[in-house]
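Usage

Read records sequentially. Each one opens with the input sequence:
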Amino acid sequence: MQIAVDKDLYGLAIYGEPKGAIKGTRVGLGVWKGIPGLTLYDENGNERATVQTEQSGPSLRLSDVNGKGRVELSMASSDAYLSLSDKEGFMTAIGNTDLVTPRTGETHKTSAASVVLFGKDQKVLWSAP
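and closes with the structure output:
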């Protein structure tokens, strides 16, 4: 176990076997640049689950064995968003999503009652409403 304090981080780390990218950290609890969070790591040091709370709202991120985010739930004061993605890069977004109209470059945000399916190139395949 280690307690760390510097100008950007106040935290506690709990260690397992000393291997992987972060040398055995299995649980991190801290405040990084003013944002409190909890991160769980697998035995290889890959980030697998993170919960944090910013001033705008809380978020949850679940990652695959390579540390790539696959599920994200985020809530801000006026937005709510859930995304699910696979290893090829296809993604489903439910809730408030920022979209760009390729033809015009205009951006707009969908409502919380929307579903958007993205291809692996991040182009919209289907959306409702």
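Summary fields computed downstream for this record:
- The radius of gyration is 18 Å.
- Residues 42 and 109 are 35 Å apart (CA to CA).
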